[in-house]
Predict the structure.
Amino acid sequence: MLHTLSDGFDWRVDRLEWPITTDVAPGLRGVIAAQTRVMWLDPSSGRLAYRGVPIESLAERPDFEATAELLITGSAGTGDGGSTHFCDNLRSSRVLPTDVVDLLRGLDPATHPTRALRAGVSALGCHELSVDNDPAGVRHWRELRIVGQVTGLVAQVVFHRRGVPACAADPHESLANGLLRALTGSPAEPEDESTLDLLWVLYAAHGIDAPTFASMVVASCLADPYYNVVAGLSALRGRRQGGAIQTVMEQLLAREDPAEARRWLHRTLAEGGRIAGFGHPDYRMPDPRVVILRKAAAALARRKGEGDLYEVARTIEIAATRELAARDIHVNINFYGGLLFHLLGADPELAPCLIAIARMAGLVALVHESLDTIRLYRPLTRYVGPAERPLGRDRP
Ligand code: ACO
């Protein structure tokens, strides 16, 4: 008997039978691949909630550490920050083994930060798992240290890139403050800390995006969490995904003024190019996170004396919306995310790593949750090559 979702197929217990007649769209668009309690994303209404809490509420007093706890443990807390135990664990996991820091500092400082981060996570995996001989990595999922560790790694990448000595993380300092201190060399202004928390809260989880799915596929093979995270980071780096933020920043910083920005946009689209920061596989409407980030970008740009840059960004957004909305291509989170990371002192190449910190929270939460029901991923292929034929003379 053939099963479909509508006749009550239960993917945890039922087996699919041949012949398979279901085809799915490229990119598995429109396929439900997991059930989750971690987050709710409704592309038609633009609603996005973590464990039932709308992002608009989380953005009012943004606290990435409490949001990470919400995603990972489900605890909605009291609204006054995360629990002390969780925060302590998160913050102290930024302190990295010396050999991992040495490995990062042995790389060329000009190495793309995402490559250095990937190397750092791999090194950390060797270190952690050889120490406690825990091949399935269960203990590490339980300790949920990866968010803190990735933050610690990114800070070390920043120090090395800036050419300053490595500085150990202060276990009492917030994740946002520690990272901003690494970026600028001085303690963060409260407004900057709050803006970075806001960015991280909004970037923390977004359904089964490519990084989360890549990580889930590796997890379905029962690899340890560090392999899963390396797979997720690799997907996140791609320029269609988190890597797009680098292009967003480069395209913005290369513009001279609003008039030149408009000319560039029309030329780019006329030549068949893409505008980074526009388009999303889920949304046929503007990404709901943009409303929040646009407002934050206007305020921070004003405070930093970068109002002109904000005007250029706004010009590009309006002109691109005019050109692309009719094709259902709308502004996405990276558009103002890129401007905000720039205003906080990050260069374009570094920005994907800053997204990675946030996305680790949602990724570990979703992958951890999936371990209860996950089955080895094994989609099928539809053969469209030549019919069966004898081995010819032209064989290699
Ligand atoms: N600018 C101009 N045209 C675009 C854009 C864009 N940003 N995005 C899609 N299109 C056009 C394509 O050229 C294509 O046109 P065609 O049919 O005439 O060839 C059509 O829209 C469909 O493009 P696809 O890539 O098939 O659409 P998809 O929904 O798969 O694209 C994606 C999603 C990859 C995000 C795409 O919109 C894009 O490349 N955007 C720019 C990069 C970006 O901002 N990425 C981050 C997205 S947010 C996230 O994290 C997923």
Summary: The longest strand covers residues 39-42. Residues 92 and 302 are 35 Å apart (CA to CA). The beta strands are 39-42, 47-50, 53-54. Residues 113-132 form the longest helix (20 residues).
